[in-house]
Amino acid sequence: MICYLDNAATTKTRPEAIEAMVSAMTQEYANPTGAHSMARSARRLIEDSRENIADLLGLDLGEVIFTSGGTESDNLAIKGIHKLRGGVVACSSIEHDAVLHPVQQLDGKVIEVDADGIVKLDQVEALPDDTSIVSVMAANNETGAIQPIAKVAEIVRAKFPEAVFHVDAVQGFCWLDLMEVCKLADMVSLSGHKFGGPKGVGILVSRSGIKFRPTQIGGGQERERRAGTHNVPGIAGMAAAAQATAAKKDVGIAHTKELRDQLITRVPQEISDTHITSVNADRLANIAHFCFEGVDSEALLFLLEREGIMASAASSCASGAMESSHVLTAMGVPANLANGSLRLSLSYETTQAEIDHVVEKLPAAVNQIRGAKEA
Ligand code: PLP
Fold first, then answer.
1. What pLDDT sits at residue 111?
2. Number of Cβ within a 10 Å radius of residue 115
3. Which of 56, 89, 180, 198 has the highest local Cβ count within 10 Å?
4. Model's pTM, two decimal places?
């Protein structure tokens, strides 16, 4: 049995997205910037996709910028604002590297989190007066901890009225009210492959009146804000996935939460010395994150994979190498406990049988590793 429980890393492509992409690839292959009727047709497909997404998010059309994914959207927001305005860039210590690394590269400020991985609001208040952009994610990709972005927005508006508030909502599309997020923030990053769309396509929401300097210049696409020939199939596939997700959202969240809650109840019952991460925080409905004492996550993932369980220890990493999670470190989780971390991330499609399989196989895997260590 294959249990795909790594949906925070990426999701299975939805049939609606595949259909839209195949149709775009076979029929709308003209360059949308061209002058002929086939180009106009491809352009129409992009603009229809933009309209669908803008409707779902409660935005004007000009507020939706198509990018190559969450990483580009994050970089464009941070670097684009800094290039235009200078000042101090700031983000929380648990941001995805796509935010954290640009902020660190620009010698920005990093806001700490508490033991549950929630951003410390007093540290947002204490940012320097010349802060130009504050970036706090909607929910963390490892722990699922939902951040108090309404409160962060309130502080930013009151204390730094000139600053831009950016939210990386990449993990939120299937689980949070994104219309609300777009109301609170000036800029929002989204990624198609986290909600059943293809990889390599995303969105940067930039609310009306927010100006930034583009980082990628050339052909003037996306109203001079993001140059490069549009990924027409990707954009069409992402829009189709967004619509399909929205149609299933309420039922999907309730279903997923019920299965996730079973995991966080049953796993600690079966396995001693299990810690549920961010236990006191509101968390996304699809993430169960544990730290097991006396366990090495690399070995655990290996044993789980042999049982057909695809999971993750920290955020997925291009090199495939296991590095200690900067998120758990920022939360003050001791290294020996962080080394025994496991993230199980579900989707609307996760089944009861998959959860039962995990609850059956996980204790033996943990015990095997603990036993080997003792021997
Ligand atoms: N931000 C968060 C919170 C993520 O989880 C990810 C992907 O894991 C990204 C950004 C990067 O998105 P993409 O894979 O589309 O570049």
1. 98
2. 13
3. 89
4. 0.97
